[in-house]
Amino acid sequence: MSGFDLVVHGGHVVTPSGVLSIDVGVRDGRIAAIGQLYPDQAAEAIDATGLFVLPGIIDTQVHFREPGATHKEDLETGTRAAVLGGVTAVFEMPNTDPLTLTAADLQAKFDRAKGRAWCDHAFFIGGAAENADELARLERIPGCAGVKVFMGSSTGNLLVEDDATLERIVRNGTRRMAVHAEDEPRLKERRHVADEARHPRAHPLWRDETVCLKATQRLLGFARKHGRRVHVLHVTTAEEMELLAANKDLATVEVTPSHLTLVAPDCYETLGTCAQMNPPVREMRHQNALWRAIAEGVVDVVGSDHAPHTLEEKAKPYPASPSGVPGVQTTLPLLLTAASRGKLSLERVVDLLCHGPQRIYQIAGKGRIARGYDADFALVDLQAWQELKDEDMGTKVKWTPFAGMRVCGVPKVTVVRGKAVMRDGELLGTPQGRPVRFAETISPS
Ligand code: DOR
Q: In which residue ranges of the chain is CATH 3.20.20.140 found?
């Protein structure tokens, strides 16, 4: 068979049938054949000998700060960091300035991304009192990832604190809704804990387990009442995992590599505010519960919650310091390192970073190495070890909470719709990212 634009040959390919030593042929940006192919008949060939070929990572939780805070990150630098880490599609969050609340706000983001995004992208619309009745229409705009709700205040002023507004939002729409579940009334009540302690070690005490559990209970109550599918982002507590395991018919679950890797109280002593994020990094009891939930299949997705702030901003005295840590570039190496230590299988890494996002958000044609799917690949060397360093980070803020950690599973080549955009840490070509397509909003031709 001939006439491919690209053949990736000689690698170990992670397919839905398992890991196969097989070649992948690409035509017009899509996977056209999987089998024994002839690279010399393709316009371009990538020799993947010794490498594993994964579907490109889909990071469904990133904050790229454009518009409004582009001194922290923008769509070019955020997607640059993404492809350096084997990520081929990102879902970007609506707590920008202005907030993403209208069709015009969404369009402005697509316009900004055009010709500047290194990978494919979707944008969430924020759920708020002012647009609650419009959400069923807004969530169906092509390229929109769906609705994101903040039940607890974090960076920016997107917030739904009361039950009446939350219920209006849950009722108005049908797509799976992504939620930051921290209970704002309890956060307000307990704010004195942070103010008095003046050290980030108090972060998980202020934003305690009950803050998260209460919010998730409130959310599930309305989700059940209205039959709405919800996705609970960055789950951090053992208690919520129990509750979510009992509600898997409605709720899907996301955890972050930060919560799977950093542990309280040590991280606050060593990293200070650079470990401060919402919801907080907690102690080992909770981290163990997150890993158990991965092993038991309760967790559907790992998303980075890439939330960059400058080191200058992080140097403000706690709790004036902003919450959030970068992570889009380090997700894949961190999970592959965990796999090398036997914490999970390579197939489960791909399930959490590729198949899971596709399944829960109904992404069209991504997340699997299968014929007809977009030719998005992350080629990784599972033998290579590397130290994570601030200076190797593509993010504008140039730091990572994981600096100094040795990781294996280095992303060597990233391919977006058949075009290699990263090789050995160097970007190739020009930014050609496009909006992600969703099964629920494909328009008739
Ligand atoms: O720590 C966080 N930072 N959690 C969030 O939910 C928002 C994020 C940000 O945008 O900085």
A: 57-361
- Asked whether 94 lines ligand 1 (CB < 6 A), one says no
Using alpha carbons only, give the angle 21, 382, 298 rounded to the nearest 5 degrees.
90
**Span 335-350, mean pLDDT?**
98
- 236-256 mean pLDDT: 98
User: Is the pLDDT reported for residue 1 higher than 60?
Assistant: no
Select which of 59, 74, 208, 305 is catalytic.
305
- Listed in order, the ranges of the chain carrying CATH 2.30.40.10 are 4-53+371-427
Task: Report the chain's mean pLDDT, rounded to a whole number.
Answer: 97
Tell me how far the alpha carbon of residue 313 lies from the centroid of ligand 1, in angstroms. 14
Instruction: Give the Å distance between the CA of 303 and the centre of ligand 1.
Output: 13
Index of the ligand 1 atom closest to the CA of residue 95: 10
Domain 57-361: what homologous superfamily?
A: Metal-dependent hydrolases (3.20.20.140)
Q: Is 195 a catalytic residue?
A: no
Please indicate whether residue 180, judged by its CB atom, sits closer than 6 Å to ligand 1: yes
Fold assignment, 4-53+371-427: Urease, subunit C; domain 1 (2.30.40)
pTM of the model: 0.98
- pLDDT tens for 368-387 read 999 999 999 999 999 999 99
Reported as a single tens digit per residue, the pLDDT across 123-161 is 999 999 999 999 999 999 999 999 999 999 888 889 999
